[in-house]
Structures are given as structure tokens and as C-alpha cells.
Design a protein that fits this description.
About 40% of the residues lie in helices and about 25% in strands. With about 290 residues, the protein is an alpha/beta fold. Among the domains are: about 1-75, Winged helix-like DNA-binding domain superfamily/Winged helix DNA-binding domain (Arc Repressor Mutant, subunit A, Orthogonal Bundle), CATH 1.10.10; about 160-265, Periplasmic binding protein-like II (D-Maltodextrin-Binding Protein, domain 2, 3-Layer(aba) Sandwich). A hairpin with a 2-residue loop joins strand 8 and strand 9 (about 210). The radius of gyration is 23 Å and the shape is elongated. Belongs to the LysR transcriptional regulatory family.
Length: about 290
């Protein structure tokens, strides 16, 4: 049995959540992936994966073995790269969770640049708007926007997300340009449900706070979708800068009340205390921070 090859198959099955997805990623057959896991369980004399009609789930032994196997495979990759190149190169795989719109607008262009600089790193990005469990779900890094709850994870600030009120030129022509925040209350809006506190929005100017309700005609759980609705509909939106900025540059949207601050949220890269992750995660985080602050 080729232990490293079998170990690599198991790690991919654990991360992808199915034999089929892991087989496709590694360009192997589903039957071979199943055989590799069975060989590993036979060798270790312990069950690593629970199989059911709803999918697969790692056992406690499987979770422990996954952590060690991933570390070993990454260490081998790092050794190979360090022998071929300088010590600043990173290798192995990095599995990342990120919010959908942030991932589409910010993370994907950055990742494309990052892998050009670090060709030996393999990146697996999963975009969704839920908080994943990094350790149990096999993630190395998670991007989270907003105030953080207490946890055992390490948080590295990489940037800031600001909110902007925007509408199309057609909307402004029909409704006029609002002069004070309270005027937004009588205007039709699209509401991004990722924002908490639907009935009341808040903005600031010269140290003074202004609260106002919004009249949401449409609700959607995606910031980019909210921005697109404002482009094509008779609606205004209060959305993250990374969702509306491309439309502001083309003139498809115009900023409303630009002298008011509609709030901002920190963007953090979260990772666990696993020491073997330190180098590649640090390199990734510092590069992302530089990219977001250009």
C-alpha cells in the first residue's frame, strides 16, 4: 500500500464530503477512493468514516487522523519546495471559507494573483454565508465580516468593509437626490438581509447619529444581488463598498448622501492554533491585507 497516496485520498474525501467529489478533484475513480479509505481503515484497525444514505461523516478517530494526515502532507510539500526554491515559498493546500459576495468581488481576483506568486500552493475556496466550524469541517482559514464573537480562533484584521447608499441615475431623476437621511424613509429600497436590524438603519455625520426606517420593496440575501437590483430597478440600496463600487465606476449607480457615514465592519481572517499552518496562513493573510488596502 502506498501510504502517502492513500492518506491523500482520505484527506480529500474528508474535505470534499463525498467519494465522488474527491475522485473528481484528484482525477481518480470513486471506486479507487473507496478502496483507499478501506485499506487505511484495515491498516489502522479503526473506522474513520461513517457512511449513510445522507453522505459521509468523520468518526472521532477520523477527525484525529485527518488533522495529522493533513499536517504530514503539507510538511512534505513544504520540504519539497524548500529544497527546490528559497525558504519564502509556501506549498501544500489551503482550504478557505468566505462570504459569497466578498468572495466573488474581492477574494477571487486576489487568489488569482496569489497563485501566480506562489505556484506551489493549492487553494480550495468554498463560498457561503454561514459560519463554518473550521476544525470539524476541515477549513484552514475563514473570512468573516463584522464584529467577532469570543472563540478560540486567531483573528487577523485584513481590511474594512464600508456601507454606501446608492441608486441609479433613473431613480435619482424620478425621486430627486435626497439631502438628509430621513428622506430615504419614503423612498423604495432593496433590503440586503445579511444586515441585522431590518426596520431601522443608522448613519453618522460630524459625530451626530441619525436613525431612519427604510421602506423595503424587495429583500434578498446577497449584497451583489442587492446592488444589481438597484442598477436595474426603481430602488435604492445600502450595500457594502465591494458590491457597489464597480457600478459606481461605470456610472450605473450614484452614491446618495456621500457626506454621511453609513457604517463599516472589520474584515478578519480566522484560523485555528495549529502551528503547522502558521507560515502559509501568515503569507496569505499579509498578501490579502495588502490587496485590500491598495
Amino acid at each position: 500500500m502506498d501510504k502517502l497516496n492513500v492518506m491523500n485520498s482520505f484527506v480529500h474525501v474528508a474535505e470534499k464530503g463525498s467519494y465522488t467529489a474527491a475522485a473528481q478533484h484528484l482525477s481518480k475513480t470513486k471506486a479507487l477512493m473507496s478502496t483507499h479509505v478501506s485499506q487505511l481503515e484495515s491498516e489502522l484497525q479503526v473506522r474513520l468514516i461513517h457512511r449513510s444514505t445522507r453522505g459521509i461523516q468523520l468518526t472521532e478517530a477520523g477527525k484525529a487522523y485527518y488533522e495529522q494526515a493533513k499536517r504530514i502532507l503539507d510538511d512534505i510539500s513544504m520540504v519539497e519546495v524548500s529544497l527546490k526554491n528559497d525558504q519564502q515559498q509556501i506549498a501544500g493546500r489551503l482550504r478557505i471559507s468566505a462570504p459569497t459576495t466578498f468572495g466573488e468581488c474581492i477574494l477571487m481576483p486576489f487568489v488569482a494573483e496569489f497563485i501566480n506568486v506562489h505556484p506551489n500552493i493549492k487553494i480550495d475556496v468554498v463560498l457561503n454565508d454561514r459560519f463554518v466550524d473550521l476544525v470539524s469541517e476541515g477549513y484552514d482559514l475563514a473570512i468573516r465580516i463584522g464584529q467577532l464573537e469570543d472563540s478560540d480562533l486567531i483573528a487577523v484584521p485584513v481590511g474594512l468593509m464600508t456601507l454606501k447608499a446608492c441608486a441609479s441615475p433613473t431613480f435619482i431623476e424620478q425621486h430627486g437626490m435626497p439631502l438628509v437621511p430621513q428622506e430615504l424613509s419614503s423612498l423604495p429600497a432593496v433590503y440586503d438581509t445579511n444586515h441585522k436590524g431590518r426596520s431601522l438603519r443608522r448613519c453618522y455625520k460630524e459625530g451626530e447619529s441619525f436613525s431612519f426606517p427604510i421602506q423595503s420593496i424587495i429583500s434578498v440575501n446577497n449584497a451583489l444581488a442587492s446592488a444589481r437590483l438597484a442598477v436595474h430597478g426603481n430602488l435604492f440600496t445600502i450595500s457594502p463598498n465591494f458590491a457597489v463600487d464597480p457600478f459606481l465606476k461605470t456610472g450605473q449607480l450614484q452614491q446618495l448622501l456621500s457626506d454621511y457615514d453609513f457604517g463599516s465592519y472589520p474584515v478578519n481572517a480566522m484560523y485555528s492554533h495549529r502551528k503547522y499552518l502558521q507560515q502559509k496562513v501568515n503569507v496569505f493573510n499579509q498578501a490579502l491585507k495588502k490587496h485590500m488596502n491598495q
